[in-house]
């Protein structure tokens, strides 16, 4: 039997009982990221759109810069262990309710992560596990 092909991405989606722009605003807010992202808990601003938080897994620092695209309701999260190591492996997308045959007072929020080519299997397993509780926290925060 051939080895299983490793997963290269992971996505989770939740329906949120708010308009799309309200969800987008929360997802873009670096200080709010520290309320739902397990790998960047309790974020604090560091200037130039950068925030630093702590991993709930090992306490390490996680630097993050949300890069929003309001027209597309999309946020790329550039993350790393410091300002010089930021890469964009995580994205959030908000779908307005009417675009997915729902009302205007709801939206769908999707979190998507891509596997970095240098990421160990253990690190990828942890990254895949994080969005599951995060996507449950987001509707509660909204």
Largest sheet: 7 strands, antiparallel
- C-alpha geometry: globular
The run of helices and strands is EHHEEEEEEHH
Report low-confidence residues grouped into runs of 5 or more.
Answer: none
Concise structural overview:
With 142 residues, this protein is an alpha+beta fold.
Explain what this protein looks like in three dimensions:
There is one protein chain. The protein is 25% helix and 38% strand. The protein is globular, with a radius of gyration of 15 Å.
Would you spell out the secondary-structure blueprint of this structure?
Blueprint: E1 9-16, H1 20-28, H2 30-36, E2 41-47, E3 50-54, E4 61-69, E5 74-80, E6 87-96, E7 107-114, H3 121-129, H4 131-141
Antiparallel strand pairs: 1-7, 2-3, 3-4, 4-5, 5-6, 6-7
Structure keywords:
alpha+beta, seven-stranded antiparallel beta sheet, 25% helix, single chain, 4 helices, 142 residues, globular
